[in-house]
Amino acid sequence: MHTPPRRLAAALLATLAGSFQQQPRRRSTALRAIPIEDMEAWTREYYAAARDSRVRKGESLDQFLQKYDYFDDDYVLTGPDVGPLCKRDFVATQRGFTLDFGRAIPDLDYLLDGFHVDPDNNERVWFTLRYVGTNDGEATRIGKFELKPTGNPLRGGPELHSIWWTPSKQIKWETVGYAGCRFTGTNEGYGGLAGLLIGIGVPRLVFDLVAPFGKYVFALSQFNEATETGGRACSPASDLPQWWNRRTELGVNVRR
Length: 256
Hints:
This protein is an alpha+beta fold and 256 residues long. Helix content is 35%, strand content 23%. The chain has one domain: Nuclear Transport Factor 2, Chain: A. It contains eight helices and nine strands. Strands 1, 2, 3, 4, 7, 8 and 9 form a seven-stranded mixed sheet that branches. A two-stranded antiparallel sheet has the order 5-6. A hairpin with a 6-residue loop joins β1 and β2 (85-86). The protein is globular. The relative contact order is 0.14.
């Protein structure tokens, strides 16, 4: 039995009309970007916690980790010459770190500014750090060498840092110590540890002589045996998280 043309036309019109009705909205499954205000607040909180625990109170890294859970299991640290370091090697290196800047610079602090979101990663925040304080505390040692207090103010030049935060407020990737200007600050163009040491009396010439070879020595340290107190300034690919090795495969982990 054939359907009458009029009834067929009416059914078709009803179907077409239904297709133009507003459909219920589907919720987006994409992750929402972490607001820049949150990432700045988390970063300031992280640096303040590290300052109060590790510098002001002289607590060990293990004591710090008992209080705070900032480091993601897939954490990676990188710097101009150091890294990439996986979480295990980073923690071991910090355990083996013997210089006590809290005693040498009792009022050591960090000035943070210039927060902005990475245009290619909305969970990564870039910012400028400057070390400030006064080297009027106790003497500290580098191996057999004693560094007596100079009494001089520490006014570091700008260093570029970044943190890739996860939505659960943990750090996935941290970059440190990229000096912004070699003519500004007591760090004399060196970032991180080197800049701090220059500020408390180590001649810049020492780092000028060591720097050309340092990155090769650090890179070769990945073949050292991993211990609980360091031994590596660079982790082997087999110990680095999958997301980092994927970046390497894609050719975006460019080394200078």
